[in-house]
Amino acid sequence: MPQQQQTQPQPSPTPPKKKKIRVPRVVNGVEQMVEIEVDDVAGPTWGPNDKHTLLNHRLTRVDGPLKVSGAARYTYDVRLPGMLYARVRRCPHAHARLKNFDSSAASKIPGVKAIIQTPLKEFRFAGSPVAAVAAISPEIAHDAIRALVVEYEVLPHVVIAREALKPGSPEVLPRDSRKPDEKNLRLANKTGDVEKVEAALKSSDAIVEAEYSTSRLHHCCLETHGMVVDYSGGDSATIYATTQGTFTIPDDAAKELGLPQSAVTATVQHMGGGFGSKFGIGIEGMLACRLSNETKTPVKLMLTRYDEFVMAGNRSGSWQKFKAGVKKDGTFTALHATQYRLGGVGQGSQAGQPYAVYRVGDSYREVYALQTNEDSSVAMRAPGHPQASFAMESLLDELAYKIGMDPVEFRKKNVRDDFYKHQFDRGAREIGWERRNPTAGGNPGPNKRGMGCAAGTWGGGGNDQCKVDVTVSRDGSVVVAVGTQDLGTGTRTFTRAIVAEELGLGIKDVVEQIGNSKLGSANSSGGSTTAASLSPSVKDAAVKARLAVAEKIAPLFGNAKPEQITFAGGNVSGGGKTITWKQACAALPAAGITAHGVWRSELQSRGVHGVCFAEVEVDVETGKVRPIKMVQVQDGGLPLNRLTMESQINGGMIQALGMALWEGRTIDADLGMQLNPSFVDYKLPGSLEMPEMIPIIDDEDKREVVIGIAEAAIIPAVGAVANAVFNACGVRVRELPITPDKILIGLMSERRSA
Amino acid sequence: MSDDHDQERRKKSSRYDPSRRKFLKGVGVAGAGAALADHLLTGDADKVAAKISTPGDPLSGNVNLVLDLNGQKRNLTVEPRTTLLSAIRDRLEPPVTGPKLVCDMGSCGACTVIMDGKPVYSCLVLAVDAVGKKLTTVEGLGSPENMNGVQRAFVEHDGLMCGFCTPGFVTTISAYLKKNPNPTLDEVREACKGNFCRCGTYPRVFEAALAAAKAGTSG
Fold first, then answer.
1. Which of A77, A652, A687 is closest, CB to CB, to B189?
2. Rounded percentage of chain A residues whose pLDDT exceeds 70
3. Residues A263-310: pLDDT tens digits?
4. How far is CA A93 from CA A180, B10, B102, in A?
5. Do B198 and A106 touch (CB under 8 A)?
6. Domains in chain B, CATH or no CATH each
7. What is the C-alpha separation between A498 and A514, in angstroms, rounded?
8. If we measure between CA atoms, which residue out of A588, A583, A549, A590 comes closest to residue A566?
9. CB within 8 A of A751, min separation 6: which ones?
């Protein structure tokens, strides 16, 4: 290591003052708030948001050239000498017990090197992994898993949530002996005063009772889950992982390989999407490690697209029942909510109602996990939030129509935080809300346009896990190193930019090293916590590096104080003298300097606001919905990079559009199997469906702190699109996705009742 | 790219057409066997079909090929059933990994390569059928240091996030702009309807394509 720049530790006469702050901790992508104590000392600040030279500008991503030319090497692209290819054999039954497993035919196939079984003996969803094979080519591995002879005792299953509630339905999981009454309905959690809510409902001017449900969705990471285990029987191993958490890999991989954790290095240079689903080694990683350990040969196990659909997790579905009251003046008075989290064999995820954006008066809610024989849900971009937001925003719309109030005004009247009000105004202006026909379905002709809006919120705060090193060498080169990962979110770019800006350099003058568990520790990218966890540590390291350089080169500037030496435009100035950065660095010691940055809570915060407005066109003859225009206004403190932040807002809107209109896991009740486990049958948003999209960074937010917005971006558009569909055609589809059949059925029943 | 195929099908039924529908039709109920029978160099289709239907006794025959890839003659040995995508990713040494394996069934476009000037899904092309064709992957269009106009525009307009779909989009659009150097927004949408992006880069992919066209630097 180069010489370290550290002032001598001085005995401090009084221990530093402490202050308590609440920060999110993320477990498997789900955010939980905890209180921690930090030093209450003045550290570096970002300064005003409009005074940056690189941050808050439009920076092209530094890994762009690699990614557009095929030079970026992903885990899926890793090929090691002699490497074996692995495939997984899955159980086709929604519930079955293993009767017999015969691998004799498969093991005779030339090129097959190892066959292992998973520890499972009872399979509780179709797609549950049974065994894995390693062979010298992907094709031979595929032959081998097909040649495995597996016999099952097929057991009763239930895959339809409402069926799972019925008394005679099969048991999805064994009963908890402490709670013998709970079968498939678990986790009862009741909040609020039901009698107060009943009274408030009685005194309301209008009541809406409605049920909303959302489908289970797939992450559809283009790079499937998996890893390459580089282990040949020695005393160390390297894991190439496609993961949202570099540091979630070595421990579990080491256990599977029988190595000490320090002997295992995880590396992730580029990764093809995670969206909440890639933490830890997963069962596929466990199988890859075991196959590698058995063969003492490197093994690559990447799930097939089919595997990915049926065994790599999904977004929890939801079923939400509401009874809500409102006054004529638009005051939300009461909400009674019953929520079911539909997470298959898992617990599912929720954002509890009332959704945090709105005041609803008195409220009461019951939340349950309702289990079925389906693959467990896992975290997916803003777990629970789009589900809760869609239901709440639909309900708000129904209430607004019922009392004849403009939906924007109705929302502005009931938001908890006044900051939303100007966002609603801005969004309304950008979409052209004045063009909207207040009568649902009121426009003439078969192609009817309509508009809707909705709001979202998210945490996005950081935590104290990132240790960053900035090294400046005598030749002027600058390296910023930390083990974090870039999911395509722009982490590499802002990491470089923070250091470059602090040292008065261009973004190309700094090189970042990330994605390696031997570098400084970093948190997992879950809960939109990366930017707010990493950037304060990077800033701290950069400031320390600047001061360390200044101290070393002070003799060049008449021994000016380090704070008085300035770095700007590739030059260094002090004591009335200016020289270039390279000239200045030539005066550094031979080993250069290295500064260590730690997290500074005051450089980050949490809590963001966003609203989305959508315009759609519904063909009332076919039921087809065409998105026309979407606008999303999103704040986030200091935007580290406007270009990539806008891209994330676009991405959130597009994924939300998929959830609202097209995406959903379809499953056959009798077979218990997914019917659409492919990109042909699972409808993703495509180029032909893209509306005009306007992502707006809300610069009214003057907070000089970094907050993550990745998850915030996906939340409001789901409700906005659903509400636009209603405004367009007068049919309220309460069950996502809003497919043409549901609209046509709605139009038919409307005609019948007319 | 599917447009190309649609038009071509209407015009004539070529001997070999790597479109998904045609491929599936060719495969039919006999699965991979039928497709192989069509293409095996041995010409002994019955023998091959019999071999395939015997569990635990897969094809062991390998064939030596020369591919004309990114302006280089590349030698490799593959099983006849090996796709062009798998051949260049898993068999070539050193490998060419710009084209990605994502859906493995011709629906997402991440594996797009240019074959004799046309973008094709390399997961639907057998390696043995790519012999004698001029193949260009994203690597052949430009390098990080020397990007083509489309690649530059993708970087400038942030037409990428995770980047896994990006080689496919860049390749599709590069090929399309050669055919139509001055497209409208709607034509760009049409051109890349066979490519999926999950991060949600479409609006900026369109911007990049139009900017590259405007700059007249598709190649």
1. A687
2. 94
3. 999 999 999 999 999 999 999 999 999 999 999 999 999 999 999 999
4. 26, 43, 25
5. no
6. 17-140 (3.10.20.30), 142-215 (1.10.150.120)
7. 15
8. A549
9. none
Instruction: Say whether B151 and A65 touch across the interface (CB within 8 A).
Output: yes
Tokens of A644: 């990539």
Q: Is A535 exposed, middle or buried (0-12, 13-18, 19+ CB in 10 A)?
A: buried
Cα within 13 Å of Cα(A50), Cβ side? 5
Interface contact flag, B154 A64, Cβ < 8 Å = yes
B50-106 confidence digits (pLDDT tens): 444 455 444 457 899 999 999 999 999 999 999 999 999 999 999 999 999 999 999
Taking only the tens place, the pLDDT of each residue in A548-592 is: 999 999 999 998 999 899 999 999 999 899 999 999 999 999 999
**Chain B residues lying within 8 Å of A138, measured CB to CB:** 86, 90
Cα–Cα distances (Å) from A437 to A31, A448, A726, in that order, read 40, 10, 11
- Burial (CB count within 10 angstroms: exposed 0-12, middle 13-18, buried 19+), residue A112: buried
A680 Cβ under 8 Å from any chain B Cβ:
yes
Residue A263: φ, ψ to 5° = -85, -5
With residue A734 as reference, give the H or E element that holds it.
none
Q: Best residue in A60, A63, A67 to probe B by mutation, most B CBs within 10 Å?
A: A67
C-alpha torsion sign, points A292, A295, A299, A304: negative
Q: Say yes or no: A275 contacts chain B, CB-CB below 8 A.
A: yes
Q: Which of B55, B189, B201 sits opposite A647 (nearest CB)?
A: B201
Nearest chain B residue (CA) to A79: B90
List of domains in chain A: 18-73+462-603 (3.30.365.10), 78-155+225-302 (3.90.1170.50), 317-460+605-753 (3.30.365.10)
Q: Which amino acid is at B161?
A: M
- In this complex, do A71 and B144 lie within 8 Å of one another by their Cβ atoms? yes
Judging contacts by C-beta atoms under 8 Å, the chain B residues touching residue A272 are 100, 162-164
Three-state DSSP state, A712: helix
- Per DSSP, the three-state class of B87 is helix
pLDDT at A182: 82
Q: Which residues of A touch B103 (CB under 8 A)?
A: 305, 678-680
Confidence at residue A1, expressed as pLDDT on a 0 to 100 scale: 38
Q: What is the pTM of this model?
A: 0.91
Residue from A69, A139, A649, A694 whose CB has the most chain B CBs within 10 Å, to mutate: A69
3-state secondary structure of A432: coil
Q: Shortest CB distance from B82 goes to which of A65, A79, A139?
A: A139
Q: State the pLDDT at residue B61.
A: 78
In 3D space, the residue among A665, A652, A32, A650 whose CA is nearest the CA of residue A315 turns out to be A665
Write out residues 584-643 of A within 8 Å (CB-CB) of B: 643
Res B39: pLDDT: 37
Q: What is the pLDDT of residue A176?
A: 80
ipTM for the complex shown: 0.93
Give me the residue from A71, A273, A687 closest to B202, CB to CB.
A687
